[in-house]
Amino acid sequence: MISHINLLPGDYYTQRNNKLSPDVACMPTARVMFYRGNGIKYTNPSEYADDDYFMHSLRTPEARYYAKRKYPNIVKAGYPPNEIHGMYHSWLDSLVVGRRVSDFRTDLTWDNYLDRILAGQVIMTSGRFGSLDGHAVVMIGVVSSSLGPCLVLADPWGDYRTGYKERGGYAINMSREDFEACIKPPDCKGKWGHVLI
Description:
Blueprint: E1 3-5, H1 26-37, H2 50-58, H3 61-70, H4 72-76, H5 86-96, E2 102-108, H6 110-118, E3 123-129, E4 132-145, E5 148-154, E6 172-174, H7 176-182, E7 191-196
Antiparallel strand pairs: 1-4, 2-7, 3-4, 4-5, 5-6
């Protein structure tokens, strides 16, 4: 039986504790788990919790200016920097890690996810989880099931399988069927994901 988890329970973060707009804090919160699960040391010189510090940093005039220059069409469509995938590898990595440590890919397959996770990595991604469209989660492990391997995720909002009635989102199993239907883009072979470079 496969059981491989790359994020410790104590490194799980919930966006529900975020002091700065918890309803839209899934990406900064997922990014904390991405760094922790991948063993990446980052700085937080503030008195904010780590995910609040990331959110605050991504809402500064400097971040907005950078996003407007690098991702003009996405900004024009109404997305703030904390909701733009590219800001995490192109801007936040440099700010809090001191160098770029990740890339955002749009061509990942189920097997790519399995291989990277079994090699000890976690992958930050997003998808459609019930009424939450564009919600960020972190794939943190692989477990065996009667239907084959399942991915294990850390969801900063809770358990999507309960319609988020269950607020604990650590170590939620996701079948391949759910992966294909939920992870962006839904029902496409090439999936999104932040991966180590």
